[in-house]
From TrEMBL:
Range of residues in the leader sequence: 1-25
Lineage: Bacteria, Bacillati, Bacillota, Clostridia, Lachnospirales
Xref: CDD domains: PBP2_TRAP_Siap_TeaA_like
GO cellular component: outer membrane-bounded periplasmic space
Protein source organism: Butyrivibrio hungatei
InterPro entries, sorted: DctP_fam, TRAP_DctP, TRAP_DctP_sf
PROSITE patterns: PROKAR_LIPOPROTEIN (PS51257)
Keywords carried by this UniProt record: Receptor, Signal, Transport
GO biological processes: transmembrane transport
UniProt keyword Signal present: yes
Biased composition (Low complexity): 27-36
Stored NCBIfam families: TRAP_S1
Protein name, entry field: TRAP transporter solute receptor DctP family
Protein family membership: Belongs to the bacterial solute-binding protein 7 family.
């Protein structure tokens, strides 16, 4: 009886002590606010709105990497994919979208994905980013002037040939597989100093990502390819490490490059073909029904990408002009095409049939 009385007193003392010290149950961490859209006229999917799907108790979370901000064409496409997956799965699959390069560059992300461990399950990447990982077919999509228009690209992206390209990395044992294609507009060069045309590029240091096609393209222009990580590009332009770089119009603006390189020439050397990839490790953990959800959500995101890309790009281009960026039009693309013929011939060896099939889709 005495022991029981002492036990009750000790319990009461602990409770009083906790109350006096203000100890409370830990609160759930505050939700990180989503990136704000810089262009108010562009409506991104409301992935973090009040109508967002509530995660199921046993939900699977897939971490997805994006190097660009969420207000870009690719960022908005990612948000649409996230929204579609979570809605179609009734919250049983959650896409943890990490944007603005917080998980590293595209190559860093791919290295992590292929290294295993499951810290990054998915990523939106440029099609040519798979080239060092055995994606030889994907490399064709970044060849200069292979696509003559957006419609030409979408003729490819909705074809059976595109599905063959998407599965190349999985079939060759690289460890990732493609889900769907999209595009972020044609890529153009932008420079620190004023330019007038193709002749202005001779001797310039132009940023590349150590991609053989881009290296060859830059050399064809008489310039010097200089490898710089994307996350360091702003400072490289600012400090003179490089004189120029290239990006789609929307990414050029969203990454504040006009502040340090206010001249853009609309040469459209490459259409920014993109794809979303998932590791085989993450894919194999999903049920067939869940895999189908990702595929169907990818189709919806691809269609959404197609519907917004040109309009979004045109809005950004007009805003750049209003902000004082010098936009140089290219009246005759022929000299550019002639300059890059060697890089095309070098990189289609053994893939001539595939190259011709794409060319013929225009």
């Amino acid at each position: 009886m005495k022991k029981r009385f002492v036990s009750v007193l000790m319990t009461a003392a602990v409770v009083l002590s906790m109350t006096a010290c203000g100890v409370q149950a830990p609160e759930a961490p505050a939700e990180t606010p989503a990136a704000e859209t810089q262009e108010e006229t562009a409506e991104a999917p409301a992935a973090d709105s009040a109508e967002a799907v509530t995660p199921a108790a046993d939900a699977i979370t897939l971490v997805m990497a994006e190097v660009n901000p969420l207000d870009t064409i690719v960022g908005m496409t990612d948000l649409k994919f996230k929204e579609e997956v979570e809605a179609r799965s009734n919250g049983s699959i959650i896409i943890d979208l990490q944007a603005s390069g917080v998980l590293g560059s595209e190559n860093d992300v791919l290295d992590t994905m292929l290294g295993g461990g499951g810290t990054i399950d998915m990523s939106r990447i440029s099609a040519f980013a798979l080239t060092p990982y055995g994606g030889q077919k994907s490399m064709l999509l970044s060849l200069p002037y292979i696509f003559t228009s957006r419609d030409h690209f979408w003729n490819f992206a909705t074809s059976d040939l595109a599905q063959e390209f998407l599965q190349e990395s999985s079939e060759n044992g690289s460890g990732v597989r493609g889900l769907f294609y999209g595009e972020e507009g044609f890529r153009h060069f932008f420079t620190v100093n004023e330019i007038t045309g193709i002749e202005s590029f001779k001797g310039m240091k132009i940023r590349v990502s150590n991609d053989p096609v881009m290296n060859g393209l830059v050399e064809g222009l008489g310039a010097n390819p200089t490898v710089v990580a994307f996350g360091e590009l702003y400072s490289a332009l600012q400090t003179g490490v490089v004189d120029a770089a290239e990006q789609p119009i929307a990414n050029y603006k969203s990454n504040a490059f006009p502040e340090v390189a206010p001249y853009m020439i609309l040469d459209g050397h490459t259409l920014g073909a993109i794809q979303v990839v998932i590791t085989d490790e993450a894919w194999n953990k999903l049920t067939p029904e869940q895999q189908d959800i990702l595929v169907e959500a990818g189709k919806a995101a691809s269609e959404y990408n197609r519907s917004i890309s040109e309009e979004k790009e045109n809005e950004v281009l007009e805003q750049l002009k209003a902000d004082g960026v010098t936009i140089i039009e290219v009246d005759d693309i022929t000299p550019w095409q002639e300059a890059v013929k060697p890089v095309i011939e070098e990189n289609i060896k053994g893939l001539e049939d595939y190259y011709q099939k794409i060319v013929d889709m225009k």
